[in-house]
């Protein structure tokens, strides 16, 4: 019985350790994106997307955003 409990505690500890390790890398950026938006504002400040867009392609827009004709 003691071996089973010890194994469960070790497995639980390992899962917990993996969760704690992944939180700042995966989960935290998904929850609060404001830090990354600020970084993008600073790094893309002097970039004109129209000039660097390859192949005369349309600049990306949000597919879930409202179209201008829909806003009344």
Automatic annotation (TrEMBL):
**This protein is called what?**
Small integral membrane protein 20
Q: Name one GO biological process term.
A: mitochondrial respiratory chain complex IV assembly
Tell me the keywords, alphabetical order. Membrane, Transmembrane, Transmembrane helix
Q: Name one Pfam family in it.
A: MITRAC7_Phoenixin
| UniProt xrefs under InterPro entries | MITRAC7/Phoenixin (IPR027917)
Tell me what organism the protein belongs to.
Answer: Danaus plexippus plexippus
Source species, domain of life: Eukaryota
Residue stretches spanning the membrane: 7-27
Give me the Gene Ontology terms describing cellular component.
Answer: mitochondrial inner membrane
């Amino acid at each position: 019985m003691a071996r089973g409990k010890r194994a469960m505690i070790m497995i639980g500890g390992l899962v917990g350790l993996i969760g704690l390790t992944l939180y700042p890398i995966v989960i935290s950026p998904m929850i609060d994106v404001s830090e990354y938006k600020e970084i993008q504002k600073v790094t893309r400040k002097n970039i004109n997307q129209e000039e660097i867009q390859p192949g005369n392609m349309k600049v990306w827009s949000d597919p879930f955003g409202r179209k201008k004709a829909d806003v009344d």
